[in-house]
Every structure is written in structure tokens, then in C-alpha cells.
Amino acid sequence: MRAPSVAAAVAILALAGCGGGSTAPRHHVHLTAFERRGKTLFIAKCGFCHTLADTGTGGVVGPPLDSPWRASRVQETIADGPGQMPAGIVTGTAAAAVAAYVAAATSAH
Q1: CATH superfamily of 24-106
Q2: What pTM was computed for the model?
Q3: Which end of the chain has fewer CB atoms surrounding its CB within 10 Å, N or C?
């Protein structure tokens, strides 16, 4: 009887490494250097609260950001800080980079 339980344990460990339940990106996003900077900033400043498939973030405080967003709307939202979001969490070119990244990551493919 020991052999089936070892086989079952091996199967479970193998399946766990296969990405079931992974938060990996669902599509590959080609980014400019500016957008890559925005992605890094998004993960550091926004990913704790927001889910975005391309980053693998799983925040639950703010809304998920996987539907299409225009960069201008993202910048307005960052500046205004609606709800629990602090206004101006990033500013200037950092905010523009985050906005460009979110727009690129959520654009229709």
C-alpha cells in the first residue's frame, strides 16, 4: 500500500510545478524601455493593491486592471487617487511610465 501513496505524492508535486493556479501573464506583451520602467514601478507601487495579469500581481484592495485602459485615464487616476488609493503615488515621468505600461499591458490583442 505504500507505493500508491508515494506515486500520489509524486503526481501532486509534479502538478504543483506545472503552473496550475499560476498568475503568469496570459499573453506576451512587447514593451518599450519606457514601458518596462513603468512595469517595474507598477509592481513596486501598485501591484500590492491591483491585479494585472502581465505582472502576476494579485492585489485585492483596488480594482483589477486587466480590461483596456488608456494611458491618459491611468495618469488621471494616479493623480486623483480615487477611493483608498493615495493621490500621486507616483508623479511626473514615473506616472507617465506606469500609465504607458498599463495601457500597453491592457490593450486588446
Answers
A1: Cytochrome c-like domain (1.10.760.10)
A2: 0.74
A3: N
